[in-house]
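for the writeup, i need someone to sanity check this before i put it in the appendix. the sequnce is what the collaborator sent (i think, or maybe the updated version? ugh). structure was predicted straight from it, no edits. if anything looks off just tell me and ill rerun, i have time this weekend
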Amino acid sequence: MKICAITMVYRDYWALSQWYAHYSRHLGSEHLFIVAHGSDPKIAALCPRANVLAVPRSDLAGFDRMRGQMLNSIQDGLGVIYDWVIRTDADELICLDPAHHASFATLFRSHRRSNALFALGLNIAEDIEDGTMKATDAALTKRSNAVFSGHYSKAWAVRRGTHLVRHGINLAKDAAMVMPEGVYLAHLKYASIDALTEANLHRSEIASGKEDGLPGKAWLHADKDAQKFFDTFHAAPVVDWNAAKADAYAKIAHDPVAEASQKVLRARSVTFDSRTVLPDWFKYC
């Protein structure tokens, strides 16, 4: 079973370090592929054994469309060599519950007939009582508060020929939203306020450009978007992990959205008005 992981990044160094450390443990650093959006020697320094490809940053028109098409093309190329390609943003870690899956290889072997896998999404958040993380700390050893998210219940692994589109997969005759139990996408955007503050400067800079097709209001007003999340998060009641997980899985896993106009199959963007605490196994996943 040959497995690789790919991401695309621009200056999000803290998140990239988390991504590199996590997938290096599971897959080996030599099977990691990083697309640098603009030449950046710091990426190779942070990820010394990964394969780094720099692409031009001279024109940001059609930002998301261009990015998606390019990554799908690279992904197809990797699919010539690898049985499965894991593709996430740099701030997204796929976490496997050891009670269900011993490794990525065993998970994929149990889904031989699938062309793509989805994960149940979680926004990991820095709470008021959480301490500041060191640059070398693994985020999930220091952060345990989370909110389930339909928006981040994304497709994350594919076989060759299946493309990722708007958090889902391309809508084809045999497309199915396969979301195994015990597979979670930990979204780290809100896990470090220091890192978020720095990343939001770049998001706002990109979204305020003059080109057509740039990211929308969530990036243009990144600080306001973050404040809205934390206001809601701090006001949310805490629900036991098992109860919160069962509720999220029931609302998301078996009721996908098929958008014919966008040619995409994705999870519903369900929101939850409660938060939960991660079980200890996340610290070692």
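The CA atoms of residues 142 and 236 lie 20 Å apart. The radius of gyration is 18 Å.
thx in advance!!
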